[in-house]
Amino acid sequence: MIQRKQSAYLFLGSLALAVVFFFWAAPVAAVFGGYAPVVSGAGALAGLLGIVAIFLYGNRDRQHLATLVAQLCTLTWMGLFTVALARTDGAAPGSLLPLALLVCAYGFFWLARRAIRADSALARSADRIR
Q1: How many independent structural domains does the chain possess?
Q2: Among candidates 2, 17, 10, 33, which has minimal Cα distance to 123?
Q3: Is 62's pLDDT higher than 90?
Q4: Which of 30-63 are b and which e, b meaning 16 or more Cβ less than 10 Å from the residue's Cβ?
Q5: Which domain covers residue 22, as residue numbers?
Q6: Which long-range contacts does 53-62 make (Cβ < 8 Å, 24+ apart)?
């Protein structure tokens, strides 16, 4: 019962990152040339950490940390996408869709961190009652 909300948020955030990674990462990585592995790696790391955090439900502190790192990687990737759009033709149709998905992923990770903190507080209060 405790893990239901954050698992859903983590899955939705990772799903949004996966859509961005598979459909829009190549054009953005091409803008950065030699730094393409770094650009792709930030997105892949964020998505994988979101999935891994789902299975860290036994240790809420690690789950919170994994979610925080995924959120920071998403923020980094969002900045890289913004720079790539500024360097290329930003008026292309559908060019703002990946940024909207990255904002959604960031929001889902934020909601997951909030739910993890709430569950930690709930567990601490139940331990106090015992």
Answers
A1: 1
A2: 2
A3: yes
A4: ebbeeeeeebbebbbbbbbbbbbbbebeeebeeb
A5: 4-122
A6: 53/10, 53/112, 54/7, 54/10, 54/11, 57/2, 57/3, 57/7, 60/116, 60/119, 60/120, 60/123, 61/120
Q: Give a yes or no: residue 129 inside a domain.
A: no
Q: Is the pTM of this model over 0.85?
A: yes
Residue at 128 is within a domain: no
CA 6 to chain centre: 13
Question: Residue 58 has what DSSP assignment?
Answer: T
130 occurs within a structural domain: no
25, part of any domain: yes
**Residue-wise pLDDT tens digits, 7-39:** 999 999 999 999 999 888 777 778 888 888 888
